[in-house]
Design goal:
The complex is a heterodimer. By secondary structure, chain A is mainly beta. Chain A is built from no helices and eleven strands. In chain A, strand 4 and strand 5 form a beta hairpin. By secondary structure, chain B is mainly beta. Helices cover 0% and strands 55% of the residues of chain B. In chain B, strands 2, 4, 5, 6, 9, 10 and 11 form a seven-stranded mixed β-sheet that branches. Chains A and B meet through strand 4, strand 5 and strand 10 of A and strand 5, strand 9 and strand 10 of B.
Chain lengths: 106, 121
């Protein structure tokens, strides 16, 4: 199984900060990496697919990069509604696996 | 509007069974792979299973093979998860999600709101 190591597990930030979350795969997954945002009591929401493609309707302050084993989600200027937990997911091979999540807090 | 609505969750005793349903609307259900993901209370996301458009291909996480089965009824625009021999560790919110494909990759979008399964005596 492909292991996804996400870091940090949590971070404290302020509105307007630039935030970077990383995800490392235990083997190459090419660009089969997605990012989701989850707020308490809600279902996950797709932000980025195929490593760097912004899902329709998602603000442009979110961006994704990377390929192979190392990936990054960047929020260029953190907004109040961005405080949430973020998960990476690989879909290169089954079992599809998620990172453990990064909780972004004030 | 694309919508997925899960149902069938609830409290069940260890060893019991439960069948979850996911009603799809707003898109041509038979054109998409579909999947289930679960989330134990306070924990992260765990992929459970996927099923091909016509039901001919199914993929499962190894730890659940033999206890859980995935199926679909395209005439009813519905996805199902049959869960047998339930254990306390199966307690989770279960989400259904549509699988999209492009650029050589797959992703889940959208997700349903989830249904809670609690396994306890």
């Amino acid at each position: 199984d492909i292991q996804m190591t996400q870091s940090p597990s949590s971070l404290s930030a302020s509105v307007g900060d630039r935030v970077t979350i990383t995800c490392r795969a235990s083997q190459s997954i090419r660009s089969s990496l997605n990012w989701y945002q989850q707020k308490p009591g809600q279902a996950p929401k797709l932000l980025i697919y195929a490593a760097s493609s912004l899902q329709s309707g998602v603000p442009s302050r979110f961006s994704g990069s990377g390929s192979g084993t190392d990936f990054t989600l960047t929020i260029s200027s953190l907004q109040p509604e961005d405080f949430a937990t973020y998960y990476c997911q690989q879909t290169y091979s089954t079992p599809w696996t998620f990172g453990r999540g990064t909780k972004v807090e004030i | 509007e694309v919508q997925l609505v899960e149902s069938g969750g609830g409290l069940v005793q260890p060893g019991g069974s439960l069948r979850l349903s996911c009603a799809a609307s707003g898109f041509t259900f038979s054109n998409y792979w579909m999947g289930w993901v679960r989330q134990a209370p306070g924990k992260g996301l765990e992929w459970v299973a996927n099923i091909k458009q016509d039901g001919s291909e199914k993929k499962f996480v190894d730890s659940l093979k033999g206890r859980f089965t995935i199926s679909r009824d395209n005439a009813k625009n519905s996805l199902y998860l049959q869960m047998n021999s339930l254990r306390a560790e199966d307690t989770a919110v279960y989400y259904c999600a549509r699988i999209q494909y492009g650029s050589g990759s797959f992703w889940f979008d959208p997700w349903g709101q989830g249904t809670l399964v609690a396994v306890s005596s």
